[in-house]
TrEMBL record:
<feature type="transmembrane region" description="Helical">
    <location>
        <begin position="375"/>
        <end position="394"/>
    </location>
</feature>
<feature type="transmembrane region" description="Helical">
    <location>
        <begin position="106"/>
        <end position="125"/>
    </location>
</feature>
<feature type="transmembrane region" description="Helical">
    <location>
        <begin position="307"/>
        <end position="325"/>
    </location>
</feature>
<protein>
    <recommendedName>
        <fullName>Gustatory receptor</fullName>
    </recommendedName>
</protein>
<keyword id="KW-0472">Membrane</keyword>
<feature type="transmembrane region" description="Helical">
    <location>
        <begin position="75"/>
        <end position="94"/>
    </location>
</feature>
<feature type="transmembrane region" description="Helical">
    <location>
        <begin position="208"/>
        <end position="231"/>
    </location>
</feature>
<keyword id="KW-1133">Transmembrane helix</keyword>
<keyword id="KW-0812">Transmembrane</keyword>
<feature type="transmembrane region" description="Helical">
    <location>
        <begin position="273"/>
        <end position="295"/>
    </location>
</feature>
<feature type="transmembrane region" description="Helical">
    <location>
        <begin position="155"/>
        <end position="174"/>
    </location>
</feature>
Length: 395
């Protein structure tokens, strides 16, 4: 991180500093910070994603009551996870079954959306431990600013998730009434459903649980991604604010170290969740296109159905903008902070034996594109171009 030729460096001394990556995953728990945003972990737990590590009672001394509680929690999590995977499997099988004998063009997008939702769940589930570690690492960095109050961010995220959850309930009720392709499926399955009515109830319940898990995973991941971006920007802002107060090399070193650690947190975060981000953006873009295409080119839709499609389109657009704007602004904040530190370094702390290595890490879409504002315009332009192309060539 830092290698100094003297123990007490000053501005006028010949000091060689090499700033390298020395970030390690924090293992300690910051209860005060984690308690403020515990609701995020509860949201993941509702869909079988337990981000907290299960402690082994045999390896540590714990009371029998605590061990019993831990064991029950582990069993519940395991059963819930397996149950959700069964729901996903049955959903895909049912969609594939009803596609037989029908026009593949109308059913293929629905199957793709189902597969993408399953992929999103699996990708988040596989990286569930990194969710907690990322939050712990950010909490360690935020200890540098003990006076900062996170209540505003906490209540904003609670309000956001409450809104998306309520909208999701109404959205599913409307989807159950107007759902894409549901009436066509009824004609194909009517013979089976008349002989075995319980199959109809089973399909409806499985469909409901699938959409419930899907909207919860989507909302929870968006909340988590936005929270990491906001907390990172808070750290970058404090670095820039305190840089003007720096007068000695020691204080400058602390700010650069803090900046480097935050960049490494973002690098680890992007490495683990850029694929989940890619799937989420893909799901929102498909949702925007399907809803917009149905409203524009299907003329016999009733008014209430069009209202549902338009509201769904705006919800998907809202999700996409939240993610892409959060990532873009965070990349800009990281770059601005690096530039400010470089300028201050060259102006006041540069010497023949002073070497500084500022790494530049950016949030990406599955390592394909670096998130910036122009990408937001390009994504909507792609949807518009594709829509015009399909409208010109025909349905």
């Amino acid at each position: 991180m830092y290698r100094n030729s003297k123990d007490s460096p000053s501005k006028n001394e010949d000091v060689k500093i090499v700033i390298q990556s020395s970030f390690t995953i924090a293992q300690s728990r910051s209860n005060s910070f984690m308690d403020d945003f515990r609701f995020i972990f509860m949201l993941f737990y509702l869909v079988g994603i337990d981000v907290q590590e299960t402690e082994d009672c045999a390896s540590i001394r714990r009371s029998s009551r605590v061990c019993k509680k831990t064991s029950i929690r582990s069993i519940v999590r395991c059963c819930l996870t397996n149950f959700i995977f069964v729901i996903f499997t049955l959903k895909i099988l049912v969609k594939a079954y009803v596609t037989i004998g029908e026009e593949i063009r109308s059913k293929f997008p629905i199957i793709i959306i189902g597969i993408l939702k399953v992929s999103l769940y699996i990708s988040v589930y596989r990286k569930r431990r990194q969710i907690l570690k990322t939050m712990e690492n950010l909490s360690q960095e935020l200890k540098m600013f003990p006076k900062y109050n996170l209540k505003k961010e906490k209540y904003s995220f609670i309000a956001f998730f409450t809104f998306t959850t309520l909208f999701g309930v109404v959205w599913y009720a409307m989807d159950f009434h107007f759902g894409f392709g549901r009436k066509k499926n009824q004609d194909y399955l009517v013979a089976v459903l008349l002989r075995k009515p319980f199959i109809s109830c089973f399909i409806v319940i499985n469909d409901f649980l699938f959409h419930f898990v899907g909207i919860n995973v989507l909302s929870s991941f968006i909340v988590f991604y936005m929270l990491v971006c906001i907390l990172s920007r808070i750290i970058f802002q404090h670095i820039r604010d305190n840089l003007g107060l720096v007068r000695v090399l020691e204080d400058f070193q602390k700010l650069v170290t803090l900046h480097e650690h935050t960049l490494n947190i973002l690098e680890s975060f992007d490495k683990n969740f850029s694929f989940s981000f890619f799937i989420t953006i893909l799901l929102t873009m498909i949702g925007i296109f399907r809803c917009g295409y149905s409203v524009t080119f299907i003329e016999d839709n009733p008014t209430l159905l069009n209202a549902y499609l338009i509201s769904s389109m705006f919800l998907y657009m809202f999700f996409q903008l939240l993610l892409m704007i959060s990532g873009s602004i965070t990349n800009e904040a990281a770059k601005d902070t690096s530039d400010v530190l470089k300028k201050r370094y060259k102006k006041d702390f540069k010497s023949p034996k002073l070497e500084v290595d500022f790494s530049q890490n950016s949030l990406t879409i599955w390592k394909i594109y670096i998130l910036d504002r122009s990408l937001i315009v390009a994504s909507f332009g792609t949807l518009l171009t594709f829509g015009i192309l399909l409208g010109t060539l025909g349905k």
